[in-house]
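Hi R.,

Here's the chain you asked about this morning:
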Amino acid sequence: MDPDLLIIVSGYPSSGKTYRSNQLVDFFTSKVNTATDPRINRLSVVRINDQILGLSRDVYREARSEKDARAAEYSAVKRALGRDTIVVADGLNYIKGFRYQLYCEAKAVQTPSCVVHVGTPPEKCKDINSELLADEDQDGGYSTDIFDNLMFRYEEPNGMTRWDSPLFTVPYDDAKPPFEEIWNALIGTEGELKKVKPNQATVMKPATESDYLYELDKTTQEIVNAVVSWQKEHVGEVGGQVAVGNRIIELPTSSVALPQLQRIRRQFISMNRQHNLPKSRIHESFIDYLHSSFG
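And here is the predicted structure, written out as C-alpha cells:
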C-alpha cells in the first residue's frame, strides 16, 4: 500500500489555518524530497481549500451553498487520496460529522489521517478578521454576520474520538509547531511505514445485497424513532441514555429536535448508500455517527 496520508486542518475562521497549512506543505515537501525510501520520495504534497477550489467565503451565508462547498472539498480530497499524495485539507472543517466523513474516506483507502487544530483564541480571530476586512490589498476576511455564525457553530476536535485522532493542537503563538511529531505519527520512520487496515464500516464495495437500501433506511429510522419516543417520555429532561438493542445512545445535554435527527440520518444514508455496510453493522455504525454528531 502506498504511504498516502490525510491531514485535516481545523480551526475558527481567520485563525491562521492557511498559514499553518502552508507550513505543513513546506515541511512535508522537504521531508519527501530528502527521503531515501523510494515509496516516500515519489509522493506529492497538495493543499485543498476554498480558494483553490474557487469558492467564495460568501458560500457560508446560506445552508445550501455551504453544503455544496463541503461537497466540493470532500470530492477534491477523495480524488487526491490513493494517488501517491499527502493531502492537506485546509478547509474550515468545523463540523464533526464532516471530519468523520473525511476520516471514513481515508480509512476506506487505507490512508493514515490526523487532525491539526489551530488553537487561536476567539478574540484574536475576531481581530485578525477585522484587519483582513479593512485591508483592501488582502484577499481574506469573512463578513461580520458570517464570521459570527461560523464561530458560534464551530465544533472543536476531540482527541478522544477516533475520527479526530491523532489530534495535534497548534497554539497561535507557537513558533515551532509539532510537524516532526505529525510526520512520525502518520508516516513513521523510513522502512516502518504506517499501515491502516480498513474495517467493515469503511471498505468500499458495490451493493450486492438486494435489500441493503431498505435495511439502511429501516434501521436508521428505527433508531431515530427510539430517541424521539424516549424524549416524549422524558419531557423537559436533557441528556439521558436511550437503550437500542445492545447499544446505549448517550444524548447531549442540549435538546435534540426531530429535524436535527432526520438531517443526521439523511447525511449517514447519503454517505453509506454506495459503501454498502454489512447489514449487521448498520445499527452500530449509525449510533456511532449519532454520537459523533452530538459531540
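One quick note: The longest strand covers residues 5-11.

Cheers,
M.
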